[in-house]
Amino acid sequence: MLKHIQPTLVSLAIFTVLFGGIYPLTTLAISQTAFPNQAQGSLIRDGNTIIGSKLIGQNFTQPQYLWGRLSATAEAPYNAGFSSGSNYGVNNPALLEAAHARLTALNTSTNVPVDLITASGSGLDPHISPAAAAIQVTRIAQTRGISESAVRLAIDSSTEHPTLGILGEARVNVLEVNLRLDGKLK
To answer: Is the pLDDT of residue 87 over 80?
Structure first.
């Protein structure tokens, strides 16, 4: 019986060291070396203070800021510990109520892009479409007492284009725009 147990225990020890230690540490070293910003969560800092991440949205509701998508996460908006969509159907009263409240807050007579009145699948989306950003320019400029062209410049500087020119869509990082407007990001 010992001759059957010994190879099993040796195999367990080898695979534990190899796949529980060496492989994860090698992967960590490669990612930290090749992609240090992404490996650390794509954090945005103001000096030594972490302001947020390029990958997780934040809840901006003040009129001087660009507003992102609605968040369907539990307990608080953009709570990464409770990432999920609302799973509401298009006729669900709760979805209709949230969309109507956002439309009222936007106070615009133009067509509103759907990404401003619905939540993303994760509830954490940090991006909105360029069209969703564009309809907010006047409100932000008036509230801040700056020109609309200054707001558009902040939006243009924070717009990411499709990867390789074909993958995905153009998108605007809401946190980056707001930091540029506050003068905390160049």
So the answer is: no
Q: How far is CA 4 from CA 7, 9, 78, 145, in A?
A: 6, 9, 53, 79
Domain assignment of residue 186, yes or no: no
Burial class (CB in 10 A: 0-12, 13-18, 19+), 145: exposed
DSSP H or E segment with residue 44: strand 43-46
Closest by Cα among 121, 116, 120, 85 to 102:
116
Band of the pLDDT at 86, cuts 50, 70, 90?
A: low
Domain membership of residue 73 (yes or no) is yes
Mean pLDDT of 142-168: 94
Same domain, 7 and 91: no
CA 179 – CA 97 distance, rounded (Å): 30
Q: What range defines the domain where residue 168 resides?
A: 41-181
**Residue 10, in any domain of the structure:** yes
**Segment 45-54 mean pLDDT:** 82
